[in-house]
Amino acid sequence: GVATHPQWQRQGLASQIMRATETFMRNEIRVPFGLLVCAEQTQPVYARCGWQTVANALFFIQNEQRLPLYTCVMILPLASQTWPTGEIDLCGLPW
Predict the structure, then answer these.
(1) Whole-structure pTM over 0.90, yes or no?
(2) Counting CB atoms within 10 angstroms of each CB, which of 11, 57, 78, 80 has the fewest?
(3) Tens-place pLDDT, residues 6-17
């Protein structure tokens, strides 16, 4: 996870990092979507940066078990493609 020390909050640091992340995804690795998972209380921060909440079920693997991850799932469209429906399987740990 990522957090900002309270002394440095409300100074636009998260927005700067998210803009740099978007630029990297769009121009360097050229992916059609960004994907992140976050706590419900941090969803508004990402939404202000253009990320959209999606309803896809999310699964991960831990100790050889496929488990659901109950958290906020968000995407950032970076191309003209439509986000697909269906499950998201991380095929490993969520970090």
Answers:
(1) no
(2) 80
(3) 898 889 898 899
